[in-house]
Structures are given as C-alpha cells and as structure tokens.
Amino acid sequence: MTDETSTRQAVWRYAAATLAGAGCALVTGVPSDDPGLLDAAVTTPGMKAVPVRDQRVGACLATGHALVSGRPAVLTTSSGPSLPNALAGLLEASALRAPLVVVTTRIPAAGLDRGGFQQVDQRAVTSAVAKWHVVADDAERLGWALRHAVHRSVNGAPGVVVVELTDELLLEDPPPAVTATSPVRRLRSVPAPGELRSALDLMAGAAAPLILVGGGAKAAGAGPAVRRLAGVWGAAVFATAAGRGVVDEEHPAYCGLAGLYTTDPAGELLDGADVLLALGTRLEETVRMGWPALAGKRLIHVDVDPEAFDLGVRPEIPLAGDAALTADALADGLACRAPVGTRGQDPASWTDRIARVRGGLARFADSGSSGGSSGGADVAEALRAVRAHFGRDLVVVQENGLHDMWSYHYPLLSLSERARVVVPGEQTMMGFGVAASIGAALAEPLLPTVVLCGDGALTLSLNALPVAAEQGCGITFVVFENGGFGWPRFVRALSGADTGVTRFATEPSYDHVVRSLGGWATRCRDKRDLRPALEEAAEHAGAGRIALVAVPVSDTDVPPGVLRLYGDHGDHSAPPAVSG
Ligand SMILES: Cc1ncc(C[n+]2csc(CCOP(=O)(O)OP(=O)(O)O)c2C)c(N)n1
Ligand SMILES: [Mg+2]
C-alpha cells in the first residue's frame, strides 16, 4: 500500500470513529475507487457498514434505518454522478425529517472549474434537500465538521446534512485520536409556561377534544404522555400515516388516520371535534385532504420546528417543543384543572361517540371484499392475512401506489406501540419503501418487517433485493400486482384520458429475482391462497430469507379514502390536487 493510500485510510478511520462516537450507527454507499468511509466503518466498533449497488437505494436504506433506530445514519458518496444519484432518496429523507449525514468527496483542487474528471458542484446538487452543506478542507477541523453535522441532523427539524471532504484533506494526517465520543444529544424543550397556560385555557373549554399524532410524536416517544393526556382530556386520538403506533391502536380513544386515510365512520369525529391538538406533524396535504372541517377547528399545534406552523392551517396556539414533554406538561396542567365531566359541556356524549365509532371500525376490519373480482384475491383480504400471521408488533413499510393505500385504513392493520412504520413523506417517492425496508429491518431485527408495495415500486428498487439477501434480512414483500402504474392510470381514467403507457407489456420478473437470491416467492390468484401464503412467508422471513407474496388485484380495488375524495371512475373533470 502506498503512503498516500494509508494516509487516506487513516483519515477515513478517524471520520468513522468520529461519526460512531457522535451516535451514528450505520454507513451505507456504493464503494468508491479508493478505500473510504464504507471500508473504515467495517472495522469501527458500533458501526454497521452496508454496501449497496445504487446510491438512491443507499439514501432510502439509511433513511429507513434512521427512522426506526432513532439514530442518525450516514450515506457516503463521491464526486461525479454518485451524489446526484442519491438525490430522490435524500429528498424523501428531508420530507420525513430523517437525520442523515452525507459524507462525500470531491475532485483534487487542480481540476476544479477546469474540466476536472467528474467535477460536480455538489453544493448546488444538494441545495434542495440539505439543511447544511459544509466543505471540510482541514484535517484539524474534520472532527468538528462531522460532529456539528450530526448535531444539525438531529436537532431543530431533523434532516439531511452534507460534509464534503476536499481531496487535499485526505492527504493530511488526521488528529491522533477522536476526543469527543459521547453521542450528540437530541435537545428537547418545553414551551414557556405562559404559552402552556393559554393552551390549557383553550383545552379546558373543549367539548369535543381531539389529538392528532404525527411522526414527530413517534420519534419523541410520546406514547405514554399522549395516552395520559387523552385520558385527562377525554380526547379522541387520530394519527397521521407516520404517527401510527404512537399509541396502541387498540387504545379505546384511537380511531385511525386523519384526512385521506380516514376509515368510516371515524370521519364524524374529525368533523365534530372542536379543539384539535396536533403533536409532531406538519399537517401535510394528505392529512388535510378530505377534512374540510379542519379549517374551522381551534388548533393547538406542537412541533419541534416552528417552521411547521401555519403551512396549511393557522394554529390559534403554536407551541414550539418536544411532543412527549409538551404532551406531558399539558396532561399535568389539565389534571390540576376541573376534571372531565365538570366543564359545563357534556363530555360523556363525546366519549360515547368515540366508543360508537370504534364499534363501527371493528366491523370494517372484518367486512367483505375490497373490490377484487369474484373469488380473486383482493387487497383488504391480503391485509387481513398479514394481520393474522404477523400480528401487531411489526415493522410496516409502505410504498407509494394506488392499492397499498388500503393499508392506511385502520383497522385492516392494527399496530402496537412496539410497532414501527416507515411511510413515504410528502414527496411520496416511488421505490422508497422497498429500499428503506432494509435499513428498517437492520434497525429492528427482533420484529418482522413487511413491505406493502405495488409492482411498479418494486420494479423501480429491484436492485435493493440483493442487498437484503446479503444482509440476511428476512423481509416479506406483499406486492399488489396490477400490471403497471395504477395510480396514474386511476387519475387518468377519471378524466377519460388514455392509460396505455401505464401498463407494463412484460411479465413480472421480481419473483424470479427473489428465488435467484435464495428467497421464496408465490402468487395468490385465489383469495383462499392468501392466508397459507402469508403463513409460509412468515416462516421464510423468520429464517432470514426474502419472502414475496404477489397478489394480482383489479383496477377497481380502490381504497375507501381515495374513492371518497375522487369518486368512482366517474365524471371528475377537475380532481382535487394530490401529489402523485
Ligand atoms: C420516483 C417517482 N416517480 C413517479 C411518481 C408518480 N407515481 C406515483 S404512484 C405511481 C405508480 C405506482 O405504481 P405501483 O407501485 O405499481 O403502484 P399502483 O399505483 O399500481 O398500486 C407513480 C408513477 C412518484 N411518486 N415517484
Ligand atoms: Mg402497480
């Protein structure tokens, strides 16, 4: 090995040790020409190195890991097309507020702006997704740059930060040892007492209180605080897609998801509520869709990031703070005030309504077909089979497609507080979940990981599957097959537009890929095949093998929330805006 190579390796070992010391648990990326961070991570205690075949997959995998582990993850890239190829995954990470540190290299200074091989303005490339992009050009400052990057990735609104190492830095001797080795702290705060008092005044007068929990509440571990608050306030509890599992979905106050994914009859509570406490959510479009009454609510909005306030809905009381600590403080404050039932209104009627709604939801869980052809498999039945064989303690990873949206309709799936969800954020990147599931499975090896996806999304991230096999991730993929891109097909059909290009002309290839990787795959054409197939899938996945259950579904198998908003394939010349 040349002196130059050994100096570079020493810098990378120092970088890996710094990141591990700061709390990062995983490094992923496509190997570069020279040994780099990925190689150094292999021998760094506390670090997991995951080589991938596609940087985009790496960005999604790191995001899945960060969301499920709660720890920042690292993606390593190099100059040229490497970083731009990761961009869609980084966009999703930023939408999901996943703490991600990108460590990238750049070409030697002599080639900068002079046609140097693979020169890219990386700061320009990351400008749409990164909270912070720093160029580290001095070995003495490298430790600071990496640690500060981790701090910024986890604090404020968590997100993507980039550290770009100059080539010259890699030729300097690194400091002899990493000095700061304690994990970077996620700083938590509560709103000022006066602000809490205003919120409590409003809450105390509520006749029909409602709590909406988002992914920020899950990240903060707000479950116990939300349960206590729901009890003292007499509130119904709803979740966003990312907030599932903050409270156990069998809690007597829990009524499913808000907005696009609301399951009837829970909508009557969303309409009837007077005071809404939103905890750890940006109130994105999918939460607001199909919920026009939201605009008339008296809103208390709690988030770590004040930039989340007044994006789509104006809060009467914005509270900047940690979701768990703030919910706890509000529960304490409310407990000192007049108890539920003595506030002039009739809270019993609200609690009765919540109980009635939960009764209605339970009937939905078991009722009939979701629109498949007679005898054929349908999405709702497939989800019931998932529930039967994987239970409520699992990692659910969702994709972005027409049919998988069924799974947001509680209680087709019902999740415990141990469960984890990885769902696309408002960027809804197709292919995100398939790749993110590997990071999720690595972060939570004791729970089964189930991916619910379309045939398009799986095809897009097919190159993630060899990585899942290499890592021994027993992930179960439930694939809703409609022979193409069903969502654009559905939207086009609303206006009578041509749908030809949304159809795949070739047969699916992913089951062959899964088998070639030592996994197990089956196709369920008949409804009766679903439960045995999921049972067998659970066994293979439990043994660390990829399991794939393909479920042919019909175009008419449209989730209730989508039907409610868009109507059946009827005359909808101007469908509501939705990100596709
Ligand atoms: C990277 C990316 N490209 C395009 C889209 C737009 N888009 C949303 S859903 C979808 C089709 C998804 O197809 P599939 O995974 O098969 O699910 P289906 O809708 O058929 O159930 C497309 C193209 C997107 N969200 N992300
Ligand atoms: Mg499809």
Description:
The chain is of the alpha/beta class and 580 residues long. It contains 21 helices and 18 strands. α11 links the parallel β10 and β11. The chain starts with a helix and ends in a 14-residue tail after the last helix. Thiamine diphosphate binds at residues 88, 399-403, 428-430, 454-457, 480, 482, 485-488, 580.
> What low-confidence regions span 5 or more consecutive residues with pLDDT below 50?
569-580
How much of the residues is beta strand, in percent? Answer: 15-25%
How would you name the oligomeric state of the polypeptide chains in this document?
A: single chain
Bound compounds, each kind once, are: thiamine diphosphate, magnesium ion
Strand order of the largest sheet: 2-1-3-4-6-5
Question: Briefly, what is this?
Answer:
The protein is α/β, with parallel strands linked by helices and 580 residues long.
Note the topology.
Blueprint (H helix, E strand, L loop, with lengths): L2 H19 L4 E4 L7 H6 L5 E4 L3 H15 L3 E5 L4 H14 L4 E6 L16 H5 L3 E7 L2 H16 L5 E6 L27 H12 L4 E5 L1 H5 L3 H11 L2 E4 L14 E4 L9 H6 L2 E5 L5 H4 L9 E6 L13 E4 L2 H13 L11 H20 L12 H12 L4 E4 L21 E3 L9 H12 L5 E6 H6 L4 H6 L4 E7 L4 H9 L15 H7 L3 E4 L6 H13 L4 E6 L7 H7 L14
Parallel strand pairs: 1-2, 1-3, 3-4, 4-6, 5-6, 7-8, 7-10, 8-9, 10-11, 11-12, 13-14, 13-15, 15-16, 16-18, 17-18
Helix pairs in contact: 1-6, 3-4, 3-15, 7-12, 9-12, 14-20
Bound molecules: thiamine diphosphate (TPP) and magnesium ion.
